[in-house]
Amino acid sequence: MKFGSSIEIDLPREKVVALFLDPNNIKEYQDGFVKKVLVSGDAGEAGAISKLYFKNGKHEMELTETIVSNNLPDSLEAVYYHKHMDNTHLTSFVEISENKTKYITEGEYTRINWVMPKLMSILFPGMYRKPAEKWMKNFKTFAENAG
To answer: Would you state the CATH architecture of domain 2-146?
Structure first.
């Protein structure tokens, strides 16, 4: 299942990318984010592996992130592994003007091996796209306020 979205941010691309790359900022725009821990490699570089921890109410989630390629300020591709599903994300930043950047995300769920999420992906595919769009809107608000 593939999805994609984009949003324009009223900041120069360099500033947007710097804010996006700083792991200390993730909590500002991703609901339930607790921490990111580098497991191996150089942070943000191709081959780097990190654990991401989230908590929403009583539910805790751990993801393993592997950076596939880092071509920033243009793009960053990563794969995320969870015990029930895997997905890829390609994040791109396009300079629209000196003070405006288009933030684009393209994702694909490549494995869903739990009955309920698989059923939800078929019946309600927007359920997987909407959190990514919400986090993009949250990032835009955070970035423009920080910038």
So the answer is: 2-Layer Sandwich (3.30)
